[in-house]
Design goal:
5 strands; 3-stranded antiparallel beta sheet; single chain; two-stranded antiparallel ribbon; Double Stranded RNA Binding Domain; alpha+beta
């Protein structure tokens, strides 16, 4: 799991401003803490799309400070982040991954879209084509 620490600060409008120390592109607000954290997940996923589009590695989360709240990415999004990061590390572009998987580009685009509910076996196949293995565990 990737759990990103957040900073919650009251702003001048009486709402809570949410920022991520590790992902400065992700910023959100909410009237109450629960709403702010829910909106923060959406902001985090949007920021991850920016990293994917710019072909940059998504930074790993830092260790939260004692009592600091975190936003946990869903498991499928974690798999997509790890896949995109591996592609960046290996210098494999989407077109090359599509060729290796013998699929059309829109399928790879969906595979790297944090908001698309891709099938886990498709992500696993992509990792295999990169010489990696996807492992799932329960904590």
């Amino acid at each position: 799991m990737l759990s990103y620490p957040v900073n919650l600060m009251p702003d001048s409008n009486g709402t809570l401003l949410v920022t991520f120390p590790d992902i400065p592109e992700a910023v959100s607000v909410g009237d109450e803490e629960e709403e702010a954290l829910l909106n923060a997940l959406n902001a985090l996923e949007s920021a991850i799309e920016i990293y994917f589009d710019e072909k940059r590695e998504v930074p790993p989360p830092s260790k939260p400070k004692k009592g600091q709240r975190v936003v946990r990415l869903p498991a499928l999004v974690v798999a997509k982040v790890l896949l995109a990061n591996e592609m960046v590390r290996q210098g494999v572009r989407k077109a090359e991954l599509a060729r290796r998987l013998d699929v059309h580009m829109p399928q790879v685009d969906r595979l790297l879209n944090p908001r698309h509910s891709s099938k886990l076996d498709a992500i696993e196949a992509a990792f295999n084509k990169l010489g990696k293995r996807l492992e799932v565990s329960i904590a």
